[in-house]
Design a protein that fits this description.
Mean pLDDT: 82
Strand content: 25-35%
Number of domains: 2
Number of strands: 9
Largest sheet: 9 strands, antiparallel
Number of helices: 8
Radius of gyration: 35 Å
Helix content: 25-40%
Low-confidence stretches: 1-28, 50-60, 195-214
Oligomer: single chain
CATH superfamily of the largest domain: Urate Oxidase
Order of helices and strands: HEEHHEEHEHEHEHHEE
CATH topology of the largest domain: Urate Oxidase
CATH architecture of the largest domain: Roll
Structural class: alpha+beta
CATH class of the largest domain: Alpha Beta
Distance between the termini: 117 Å
């Protein structure tokens, strides 16, 4: 047959550029089938691209992604602290009456950064904290910091955790119950001696941290702020009728020795004031509280000394501090006192 006449059989071969889908089309009408071939080719090309994209994204081994933080830094400036600040998270802590309680915490978590690293891995702080959120009792706080230190291959890790601690209190006469919130703070540090991480052996770090050997150093303190009420001794002594009183805050910070309950420290502080404060009271309670406070006047200086003496007599804490601030009812300023205890002094 002569080329070009109607009915001639022309062979059109098209190979799609994708290595997965070769296409061969044979036709007798060149113009009609050429249009069809182009349409089919575009259709197959679209789905081939999708297939290739899914195959690429589905592959394991994202570890090949460039790690900027671990790159070298040539400025030779070590950083004392790097990390996350103001992390707000729900946590669970120990409760003397109920076993545990949930509260909302704000955390600051840091490690030191050697001069030769460009940065730290911020997400790992949150990952570790998330694992510990259901049990952040006092001993577990240091365990969490040490895990952060190990995970980031640092010499030291630091942490501050602030949260309201809720105590249920019954009114002194009616017995009606309410809840008082006391602001609490954990503050800790764990460190390893220099040289422990010179070889970058994270397994060695983990063993030394968990076994608590001589190369492992830790420091932990707990602070609790207790609301109280005080009556001014001077006002009571010079007034023919009544005396001015005010609400105050006593903050006790204790270096960790043997385990203790926050509730016991809160009760100790309240006993040293003119009176505790309550969230719910009836008239008979108000009469009782007013008369009790009047019979136990306290300057801010008295308050600090009373709490200091009671804590010292317990003999449990290597170091502690006591501060009190009274929000004076007849002055436009507060009254303040502070003392700290250390056996070396």
């Amino acid at each position: 047959m002569e080329k070009g006449k109607k009915g001639d059989c022309h062979l059109f071969r098209f190979f799609h550029l994708s290595p997965f889908l070769p296409v061969q089309l044979y036709c007798t009408d060149s113009r009609f089938w050429l249009e069809k071939m182009v349409t089919v080719t575009l259709f197959l090309s679209f789905f081939t691209d999708i297939f290739c994209m899914k195959a690429k994204n589905g592959k394991k081994g994202d570890s090949h992604l460039f790690d900027v933080q671990s790159q070298a830094d040539d400025r030779e400036i070590p950083l004392a602290k790097v990390g996350v600040k103001g992390l707000e998270y729900p946590i669970r802590v120990l409760d003397k009456a109920k076993g545990t309680q949930y509260t909302a915490a704000k955390a600051d978590l840091f490690v030191n950064l050697p001069h030769h690293f460009k940065g730290t891995h911020m997400s790992r702080f949150v990952e570790v904290f998330h694992r510990y959120r259901e049990d952040l009792s006092m001993p577990r706080f240091l365990e969490m910091l040490d895990e952060i230190r190990v995970d980031l291959r640092a010499e030291s890790a630091f942490g501050v955790l602030e949260f309201p601690y809720f105590v249920e209190k019954a009114a002194p006469v009616s017995g009606v119950s309410g809840i008082i919130a006391c602001k609490c703070r954990y503050q800790g540090r764990v460190s390893a001696e220099k040289g422990d991480n010179q070889k970058g052996d994270s397994h060695h770090f983990q063993e030394s941290g968990k076994k608590g050997d001589s190369h492992h150093f830790s420091h932990f303190s707990v602070a609790v702020a207790v609301p109280v009420s005080t009556v001014c001794p001077c006002s009571r002594a010079i007034s023919e009728r009544g005396a001015h009183n005010q609400r105050g805050i006593v903050t006790v910070e204790l270096e960790m020795g043997p385990f203790f309950w926050l509730e016991d420290i809160i009760s100790l502080v309240e006993d040293c004031a003119s009176s505790p404060v309550y969230s719910v009271i009836k008239r008979e309670d108000e009469k009782f509280i007013t008369e009790r406070a009047y019979d136990n006047p306290r300057f801010v200086e008295d308050l600090v000394r009373e709490v200091y003496g009671r804590l010292r007599d317990l003999g449990k804490f290597p170091r502690f501090s006591v501060e009190a601030e009274n929000f004076e009812s007849i002055h436009n300023h507060s009254a303040y006192a502070y003392a700290e205890y250390s056996p070396k002094r």
